[in-house]
Amino acid sequence: MTRVEWTRTEPGDIEQVVSMLLCRENPSAVRVRPSRGDGGIDVLAPARNGAGVAVYQVKSFSSNLTAGQKAQVERSFRRVLDYAKGRGLQVTEWYLTLPLDPTNENLAWLGSFTTGCGFTAEWRGLGFLEGLAATYLTVIDYYLRDGKDRLQAALESLTAVLRASMRLGGTAVTPAEGSAAPSAAGPLQPEEAAGTLAALHATLNAYDPHFSYDFSVDSARPEIPDQPGLVAAVQQGDAERWVTFKVFARCAESLVERPIPLSLKITAEAGSQLQRDIEAFDKYGTPFSAPAGTADAELDLPGGLGGVFTRGSVRLEPSPGTGSTGYDIRLQVVDQAGQVVAETLVGMEPVTTGPSRRGVRAHGTEQHGAFTFEVLTDLEAQTGSYTVRGCDLAGKPPHPLLPGLRLLREFRHTHGLRIAGPFGPATHRPDPIPESISADPDTGVVFDFVEALAVIQDHTTAQLRVPDLAKLTRHDIREILRLAELMRGAAISVPWQGLAVHLWPGTPRRRTICSPRCSTSS
Q1: pTM for this prediction
Q2: For the chain, how many structural domains are there in total?
Q3: Residues 267-281: tens digit of each pLDDT
C-alpha cells in the first residue's frame, strides 16, 4: 500500500482520518466534535496508566509551522487547561498530533508553553501517524481512497455468493492457501470446509473500518451472549439449521461515524401489561421485552444484514445519561421510635430517562444480591415512588445476605425508609412506608431459614450456599430450623409414641413400657 500523501489531502479529511486512526488504536476513545465548548479537545481517550485521560489535539499542518499555526496550537493548549480546571477533568497526557515530524526548534517551542503544566505533553508526528496508517489500512482506504465503493461492492458480491453458492459442491469461495483440498470422491469432510470458512470470514472483515463480523451455523438456534462491542446479531434458520451473524463495533466512534437507523413498531392491546411497559420505558427508561409476534422493524445494519423484520420480539434498554456513572447508597429502615432496625448498602446503576424525558429512573442491587431497589421520579407530577423486590438467593452464601434480608423483612408500613450516602451520619427524617406495603410472612420465613444456615455455617468449614427455595418442602425447612436451634443450645421438644426400657438387659421377660399412659408388665 502506498504512503498517504498528507500534503495533498484536504485539512478536514486529515483531521477526520487522524481522529479515526486514534480511535481505532484506543477503542474506548471518543472524538469531540468542534464547538465553542469543546475545550480544545479533538480526541479524548483513557490514559495509559489507567488514571485520568489523554487529550489529543489534532492539526492538519503537514509542512513547516507558521507563526499563525503555532498560535493556534498554543490557544488550544490553554483552552485544555481552562476546561480541565473548570470541569474537574484529570488530564494526565496531552499530545499534539499532526502529519509532520518536529525539528529541534519545534520541540523547544512546544516545551516553552507546556513545561510545568503537571502532565505529559508530547509531539505525535508523521512517523507516529504512518505507523497507525499501516496498522489500520482500511481506515485510510475508506476515508482517503475508494474504500467506500469497494466495501459496498464487496458486500454485494459476497451476498450474491452466499445466496447462490452456499451449498455442497459450491465453488464460488476458494479455500485459503494451505488448507486441505476437497477430496475427489466421497462426502465433504469438516476439515475440507475449514479453509473455505476461514476465507469467508477474512472476506467479511477485509474492508469495513468501523465494524467486524463473526458468523456460525448451528443445528439449533444459539443464544446470543453479551460481548464487548456487540451491536447487533441477525439469525436466520429453519427446522434443520440456523445461521447467525454478529456485528461488532471496532471502537466507540464506529456508531458515530456509521449510525444504525431503526424504525420500530410494537403492537400492544389497550390496558395490557405490554402497554404499561412501553409507557414506563417512554417516561423513565425502564427496560422491557416485547414478546414474539408484537414487533415490526426496519433496520439499516452494516454488512447488508439489515432489512424489514415482521412479527418478531424485541428488548429495549435505555442509554445512560451523559456523564452518568454508578454510585452507592445506604438504605435504612427506621421504626416509630426513630431507631434503625435494618441497614444495608445498594450499588446503583447510572440514572436513566425515557425518550420523552418526562421521568427519571434510579435502580440498583443490594451489595450481596438480596434485593433490587428502584426509584421512579415523575418530573411532571413532581412525585416519586420506590420499589423493593427480593432476588433469587440460590447459590449464595448465607452470612452476607442477612443485612439485606433483614431490611426486606422490616420494609412495611409503620416503619420509614431513609436513603443516605454510604458513609457518615444519617439524621434526616425518613420517608414513611405507604400503608399498602404490609409485612410479608414469606419474607420472614426466608430470613429465618437463611439465618439458620448462617448458624450452621459457624460450625462447619464446608462452604454452605442457599438452595433453591422453590424445591424445598416444609419438612426440609423445619429440619434446618431445628438443627440451627440445637446448635444455639436450645432444648427441643418432639412428640413421641412410646419408649421401651429393659430393666434387666438380656432378660426379655421383664420390661417396662412407657407411653403417654405408662404401664408395667412381666
Answers
A1: 0.59
A2: 4
A3: 999 999 999 999 999
